[in-house]
Amino acid sequence: MSSSNLKKHLARKRKIQSSQSQTRKRVKTTHTVQDLPWKALVRPKITGLSGDDGILELEEVEGVEVVYEETEAGRVVKFNVVAENEDDEDVESVSEKLDDGEPQEPTKDQEAEAEEPEIEEIVEDTPHWDCEKLLPEWHPLSLHPKINMALHEKSFSSPTPIQKAAIPVALRGKDVVGVAQTGSGKTLAYGLPILNYLFSQPRPSVSHKRPLRALVLAPTRELALQVSSHLNSLLTSIEFRKQEGASEADSRSSSSKPPVKKLPPYVSVAAIVGGMSSQKQRRILDRGVDILVATPGRLWDILGEDDELAQEVKQLKYLVLDEADRMIEAGHFAELENILRLTLRESKDEMIADDTNPGVEGQDEEDEDTKEGILEGGMQTFVFSATLSKDLQRNLKKRYKPKGNKKHYKKDQAPASTLDDLLLRLDFRDPDPEIIDLSPVGGVVSTLQEGKIECLSADKDVYLYYFLLRYPGKSLVFLSSIDGIRRLLPLMALLNVNAFPLHSQLEQRQRLKNLDRFKNTKNSVLLATDIAARGLDIPAVDHVIHFQIPRTADTYIHRNGRTARAMQKGFSMLMVSPDERRVVRALLNNVGRNESEIAEMSIELSMLDKLKARVQLAKKIENAQHKVKKTNHEKNWLRETAEVLGVDLSDMEQSDNENHPSKKKRKAQERDMAQMKDELKHMLAQPLLAKGISPKFITSGSRSIADDLLAGEVNEAMLGLKKAEAGSEMEVKKKKKQAQKTAQAKERKGKADKSKKVKEEEDKMDVDALTGEDDEE
Ligand SMILES: Nc1ncnc2c1ncn2[C@@H]1O[C@H](COP(=O)(O)OP(=O)(O)OP(=O)(O)O)[C@@H](O)[C@H]1O
């Protein structure tokens, strides 16, 4: 159909539709809130809702009438869904009337074309969009034009090394095991081949539930949500282009704005994680998604109740294990194993059962045939991580023996670890999955700088506070316990540091909210346990601080991976107490590194003393506050329990009053607290001055700060110190140390030369003496 014909046809169809609306019957059905026809809403960037702000997903509902009914039990709210039901006879007569000798009724093909909005045509056929010219580095990968346009829109001008290596292999249909440094774009390395496949399929229709085509398993809720929002944000760029196209089309159309027909999304991606209401999950699954991102625990729970989904998992086209190694650590082994078992084709399942019993006669021939079956069709599998050991990669290769060798897996090749065991269960359709290992030596990303502070455990708070003031920015502080976070958080608040917690005991909503606050607050701190160590892609994290050292080398690498992402600079600092040194040494040795490679940070000791006073006072206040809170909590608990049990506490309260401080005493405590808070406030208001700085006479003192002030190079929290990046000061110290070492070496050499000269002279004198050359002698 030509463009002008299509326009005419659309205009005619619109006329018909508006007349139809007058002849439609409105059918009402009563629903509960949960089973209303909710629809997912794409969050456009321009609304400012691109951040999560605690919102997992936005949904809207149309055509719902809210009715209040007075009943004997009181007022009841009812929701009537108003469905539009066409009266076929009426519609036909109207359409006849409107024909006016114009072209015939649209054919089925024309109908289908009309379903696709004009704007789609414009986007797809844009003649000016030259991928080869605009995205020369992506062009050879031959991705779908819609994907290329979205990449351009996001300014991803070239694929990252792992994308460049993995995408062509995945597009050829091979299974891929990808290992690449943190923040190197692994999500799109597996995501783009999947999207490419989905965009090459016909657009799903509204009337059919779309089948699940890809399942991405991630170890944590945050990572699962992030993967889905990463893919969705690319898809939003595509939808967004459509809207731009729509306005172009509207302005070119002579009639007043036509109603833009809402199409189902071409590709739908959703996350199912713990902490989400089961009704919402139900709605997402009932609607149907192409790509489901899930944590194994929650998915396994759902699969237990949802046979339809279990069937869909059996028919998957793609299976992805993101951060596979972490899933084992996170204790997801059993659920993951069960899910993987579902993805196995029947016969393969048997094969694995047989592997554990390799002595069955005549089984091998059959297995080999079955394997061929799997190779032909079935599912493509991608396993990605920043840390998959070389041993594990080798074992993956060994899973299948070359053709002709009957046994797939011998007893003496028993899995070396739980992860080996798990990967053995993967339905690689490839006997030889492609292993792409781009991980850097020692796991250190080239743009990451590392440093350390050696101090007593009790002094870590002060050193942390020093670091945060000295190097403002976004700092992600890792602690190994939730209690540690609970202790540090109020301390940071008292010291006016913007700190937010992130740990497993927070509700999902709160976790997302805190992540969002951290993302959106300029100088802020995220106090986190290792749930934040893997996969989280928080833009522009300047520093990762290991307040408590990580337990494994992999965790060290993944924690560090939250900074220095996508070739940006980043800094990581280990805070090591004397009793932690041995562990640090061991974990660095594990990745073939030496503790001495990590330089020590330089500290302005005069500042540290001032900060110590602040921290000590803040701790005193916090302790006092904690005591009051605890007493109140105990009292309330006792009162509430007594009420429930119907116990009279008056006697006890009287004797308690004798033990507890009197009102007077409590008043005195409150006064003390207020005094301490005032004192801290006063302390915090005082500028921190480096040694030799005069605040009154900025050009005098032993260090003048006038020039730095004028150049805007002063650290605002610590007057007298220049603005500096965390790594730079170490370099100074390193250089100083180097200079010192060189001086010492020179000195040593000088001394050695001198003593050599002296010795030579002495020897010469001896020889002279012996030969009697000395005139005097
Ligand atoms: N081709 C590209 N060009 C520029 N930026 C990219 C490109 N691909 C991905 N990115 C960006 O790089 C960042 C890191 O990507 P991603 O989260 O996929 O890394 P990762 O390798 O999965 O990291 P981790 O191992 O920590 O999970 C993201 O913000 C993403 O938007």
Automatic annotation (TrEMBL):
Ranges for domain Helicase C-terminal: 461-606
Main localization (coarse): nucleus
Enzyme nomenclature, EC number: 3.6.4.13
Locations listed in the record: Nucleus
Region described as Disordered: 1-31, 84-118, 351-370, 649-674, 725-777
Listed SUPFAM superfamilies: P-loop containing nucleoside triphosphate hydrolases
InterPro entries: DEAD/DEAH_box_helicase_dom, DEAD_box_RNA_helicase, Helicase_ATP-bd, Helicase_C-like, P-loop_NTPase, RNA-helicase_DEAD-box_CS, RNA_helicase_DEAD_Q_motif
Alphabetical UniProt keywords: ATP-binding, Coiled coil, Helicase, Hydrolase, Nucleotide-binding, Nucleus, Ribosome biogenesis, RNA-binding
Catalytic reaction equation(s): ATP + H2O = ADP + phosphate + H(+)
GO BP annotations listed: gene expression; ribosome biogenesis
Biased composition (Acidic residues): 84-93
Motif Q motif mapped to chain: 136-164
Skewed-composition ranges (Basic residues): 1-16
Record-level GO cellular component terms: cytosol; nucleus
GO molecular function terms noted in the UniProt entry: ATP binding; hydrolase activity; RNA binding; RNA helicase activity
Compositionally biased residues, Basic and acidic residues: 94-111, 744-762
Coiled coil: 614-641
Name of the top EC class for this enzyme: hydrolase
Domain Helicase ATP-binding: 167-406
Residue ranges annotated for the DEAD-box RNA helicase Q domain, each copy included: 136-164
Pfam family, one: Helicase_C
Family: Belongs to the DEAD box helicase family.
PANTHER family, A to Z: ATP-DEPENDENT RNA HELICASE DBPA, ATP-DEPENDENT RNA HELICASE RHLE-RELATED
Listed name of the protein: RNA helicase
Organism encoding this protein: Panaeolus cyanescens
